[in-house]
Amino acid sequence: MKITVAFNETMPLVGTSTPVHTTLFDTSPEFHGTDSASSPMEVLLESLAACSMMDIISILKKKRREVVNLTADVEADRAEDHPKVFTAIRILFRLESPDCTMEDFERAISLSIEKYCSVAAMLRAGGCSIEWSSELVLRRWDE
After folding, report:
1. Which of 22, 60, 113, 132 has the smallest CB count inside 10 Å?
2. Rounded distance, CA 96 to CA 128, Å?
3. Please, what is the end-to-end C-alpha distance for the chain in angstroms?
4. For residues 113 and 134, what is the distance between their CA atoms, to the nearest angstrom?
């Protein structure tokens, strides 16, 4: 894997992983940014959510469950001293599905967070705890 991040006289920074995939990074004016994009630490939390959600969707689809909507709300605590790493993360996963059970949903989340999601594994290896909770909305189309 190879990426490039560039600064071109003003924020935001532009990260490029392929010629067509870019990510913007910024910070607050206090640190000479324009607050026009997510900070690197926010992107890390977004990456955790996205990594886990991709696993969850894949696991549920393998079980032939329909995923209509899936969201993750993420909150994190950081150390007070530099480098101000994440110390604890809480994720609330919300799934809308006409046929998924809570057991299937929670099993998919657990497999992702504990086994498959490499972002979660890297954060845990750095001493960060990750807790999760879930909400399931069963929505049938004939209702």
Report:
1. 22
2. 29
3. 47
4. 13
Q: Which of 69, 74, 24 has the alpha carbon at shortest distance from 49? A: 74
CA angle (37 as vertex; 33, 39 as ends), nearest 5: 75
Residue 84: exposed, middle, or buried by beta-carbon count in 10 A (0-12, 13-18, 19+)? exposed
- Asked if residue 76 lies in contact with residue 45, where contact means CB atoms within 8 angstroms, the answer is yes
CA distance 95 to 68: 8
pTM listed for this prediction:
0.93
pLDDT digits (tens, 9 = 90+) for 34-63: 999 999 999 999 999 999 999 999 999 999
Q: Which two tokens stand for residue 80?
A: 């007070």
